[in-house]
Design the sequence.
């Protein structure tokens, strides 16, 4: 049985039944629609019908943003930052490549707060380069050094490889921030989609393993469950650039066996104890299969006594966060994220 069929069977065996979808899903706003039109023009093949190697070669949201800018007669040059360099971090499976961004205009003599960032891509595709725009925008908006972590991919390195890499990278940065020009007392974690899952899982792992705890967690439409048993999964089952079939495909290539589907670090919303974690900023998109589970996790954190800042952006889809060059709401979301980061960096004296 291939991985996709394995997970479909596993989900059915667990008895998860998604609630009925809304009758008329909302439409994307004009700016979001322009990006989705550009993506369609690039003619990507359905990821759920490809092998991971094939899926990694498909045009994706960053390519759609560039095409949109070109159609508008605007430059495709990335947002300027102070510096960008790659470093190697020791990890459980060998060295982990991370890309370090410093903000534009940063004082080289003053230690910077640090955001350890985890890219999306369902633990299977994309990478640090695909989320370059998010890292640049956050570095400038938060006035922080951003360390974007290139964790190992599944299925070549199935769960929990990405989680262990992310935890190791975070602990390394927290212990070595000073030598990198950062402030070891002001280290946060963050991520988008699967990266949002990694960010909060790193905090759970730090609590459970008595490791160093970040001061803040930025969770942008995070994956928080593997069950698909949420209203938004059905409402947006045919959405772009993320749909239900892709979610099944991602999870199917990530886990090795059905038991892992319920791991408290993968299905974090099912974790019986999410107390003792740092304050969270949770950002969601209206047109996103992950909307319901992300909001459910935000509510669970809040009920457990974790301070939560939550905001949902209407008329935009999954992956909008890094599209500030063409979507105004992405700029607003980055500013909202930066506010939470800066507030907790200030408290961490």
Sequence:
């Amino acid at each position: 049985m291939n991985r996709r069929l394995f997970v479909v069977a596993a989900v059915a065996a667990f008895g998860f039944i998604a609630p009925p979808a809304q009758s008329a899903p909302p439409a994307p706003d004009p700016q979001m629609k322009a990006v989705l039109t550009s993506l369609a023009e690039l003619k990507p093949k359905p990821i759920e019908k490809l092998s991971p190697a094939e899926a990694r070669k498909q045009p994706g949201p960053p390519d759609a943003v560039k095409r949109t800018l070109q159609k508008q007669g605007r430059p495709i040059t990335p947002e300027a930052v102070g510096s960008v360099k790659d470093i190697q971090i020791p990890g459980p499976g060998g060295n982990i490549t991370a890309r370090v961004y410093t903000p534009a205009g940063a004082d080289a003599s003053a230690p910077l707060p640090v955001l350890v960032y985890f890219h999306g891509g369902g633990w299977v595709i994309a990478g640090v380069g695909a989320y370059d725009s998010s890292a640049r925008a956050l570095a400038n908006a938060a006035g922080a050094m951003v360390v974007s972590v290139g964790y190992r991919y599944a299925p070549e390195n199935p769960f929990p490889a990405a989680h262990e890499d992310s935890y190791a990278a975070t602990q390394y940065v927290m212990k070595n921030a000073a030598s990198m020009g950062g402030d070891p007392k002001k280290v946060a974690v963050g991520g988008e989609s699967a990266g949002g899952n990694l960010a909060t899982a790193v905090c759970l792992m730090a609590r459970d393993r008595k490791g160093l705890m970040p001061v803040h967690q930025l969770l942008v439409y995070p994956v928080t469950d593997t069950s698909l048993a949420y209203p938004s999964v059905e409402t947006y089952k045919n959405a772009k650039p993320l749909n239900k079939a892709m979610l099944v495909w991602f999870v199917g290539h990530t886990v090795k066996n059905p038991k892992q589907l319920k791991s408290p670090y993968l299905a974090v919303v099912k974790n019986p104890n999410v107390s003792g974690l740092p304050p969270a900023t949770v950002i969601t998109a209206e047109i996103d299969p992950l909307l319901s589970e992300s909001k459910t996790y935000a509510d669970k954190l809040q009920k457990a006594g974790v301070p939560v800042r939550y905001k949902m952006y209407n008329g935009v889809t999954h992956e909008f966060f890094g599209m500030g060059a063409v979507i105004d709401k992405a700029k607003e979301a980055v500013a909202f994220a930066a506010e939470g980061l800066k507030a907790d960096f200030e408290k961490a004296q």
